[in-house]
């Protein structure tokens, strides 16, 4: 097989990297929430821990600073003296007071007195800042955990596509399947042909995208993905493969990108699974083995033969010929 650079890997990862953005990198900071969600888990956890640790230390230092400037640290043990925060003697006790206030634990040993207006202002600031940080970081972690990326891994595509006749017409076919019992609601499939071409004006398009019809007019692109389905693209005069024959397939260079979208039944979130087929992964004159069988009261799917094909008599000529 010829090994070449793919536009989309078999696992759906797009081989595109953005470089030389210049001043456009500021757009990532303006959309900070999406940037954090897109980061890898190890960076998310590191930012989560650092943000809370730094915020706690800064706020505890502010409480300690108020006690230091008022002289509460020197007179904290004087019962006749009214400090800003009772029973704050040093930085550890100020840190414990902040944690009790932030986590609404309230052991009752340390508390703000009414003779400390700066402490009341700091308490209000701490409450507002803590709510904002909690909403931002916890919301980010929740969205990242609920992303349906792992659900896409249970959507299976056949390793190869086949070209054979169906209903007397030459068709390009591949197979999709759902490994889970939970359904994909409103599942829809689309196909893109990625191929270089040159326009009549002389312009070279290195990655020109062309839509492959997989049943838009008939509704066949709307899938009821309960059992494995064979997706069919009819090669007719409107198809970009109209002049493709078994012989010319060996010299062609293209990539078929398949995109399967649907709503996850359990979470209601949209999920997308992708794969691609290069010209080396298109088998001329093959058909997929059946995987469905009727047993006692139910239909059984044998996924061990999901990728298997067998040869069938197919003319080696193009649909045009």
Automatic annotation (TrEMBL):
<keyword id="KW-0813">Transport</keyword>
<dbReference type="InterPro" id="IPR013518">
    <property type="entry name" value="K_chnl_inward-rec_Kir_cyto"/>
</dbReference>
<dbReference type="GO" id="GO:0015467">
    <property type="term" value="F:G-protein activated inward rectifier potassium channel activity"/>
</dbReference>
<keyword id="KW-0812">Transmembrane</keyword>
<feature type="transmembrane region" description="Helical">
    <location>
        <begin position="45"/>
        <end position="66"/>
    </location>
</feature>
<dbReference type="GO" id="GO:0005886">
    <property type="term" value="C:plasma membrane"/>
</dbReference>
<feature type="domain" description="Inward rectifier potassium channel C-terminal">
    <location>
        <begin position="155"/>
        <end position="321"/>
    </location>
</feature>
<feature type="domain" description="Potassium channel inwardly rectifying transmembrane">
    <location>
        <begin position="8"/>
        <end position="148"/>
    </location>
</feature>
<keyword id="KW-0472">Membrane</keyword>
<dbReference type="GO" id="GO:0034702">
    <property type="term" value="C:monoatomic ion channel complex"/>
</dbReference>
<dbReference type="InterPro" id="IPR040445">
    <property type="entry name" value="Kir_TM"/>
</dbReference>
<keyword id="KW-0407">Ion channel</keyword>
<keyword id="KW-0630">Potassium</keyword>
<dbReference type="InterPro" id="IPR014756">
    <property type="entry name" value="Ig_E-set"/>
</dbReference>
<dbReference type="GO" id="GO:0034765">
    <property type="term" value="P:regulation of monoatomic ion transmembrane transport"/>
</dbReference>
<dbReference type="InterPro" id="IPR016449">
    <property type="entry name" value="K_chnl_inward-rec_Kir"/>
</dbReference>
<feature type="transmembrane region" description="Helical">
    <location>
        <begin position="120"/>
        <end position="143"/>
    </location>
</feature>
<dbReference type="Pfam" id="PF17655">
    <property type="entry name" value="IRK_C"/>
</dbReference>
<comment type="similarity">
    <text>Belongs to the inward rectifier-type potassium channel (TC 1.A.2.1) family. KCNJ3 subfamily.</text>
</comment>
<dbReference type="GO" id="GO:1990573">
    <property type="term" value="P:potassium ion import across plasma membrane"/>
</dbReference>
<keyword id="KW-1133">Transmembrane helix</keyword>
<dbReference type="InterPro" id="IPR041647">
    <property type="entry name" value="IRK_C"/>
</dbReference>
<keyword id="KW-0406">Ion transport</keyword>
<protein>
    <recommendedName>
        <fullName>G protein-activated inward rectifier potassium channel 1</fullName>
    </recommendedName>
</protein>
<feature type="site" description="Role in the control of polyamine-mediated channel gating and in the blocking by intracellular magnesium">
    <location>
        <position position="134"/>
    </location>
</feature>
<dbReference type="InterPro" id="IPR003274">
    <property type="entry name" value="K_chnl_inward-rec_Kir3.1"/>
</dbReference>
<keyword id="KW-0633">Potassium transport</keyword>
<keyword id="KW-0851">Voltage-gated channel</keyword>
<dbReference type="Pfam" id="PF01007">
    <property type="entry name" value="IRK"/>
</dbReference>
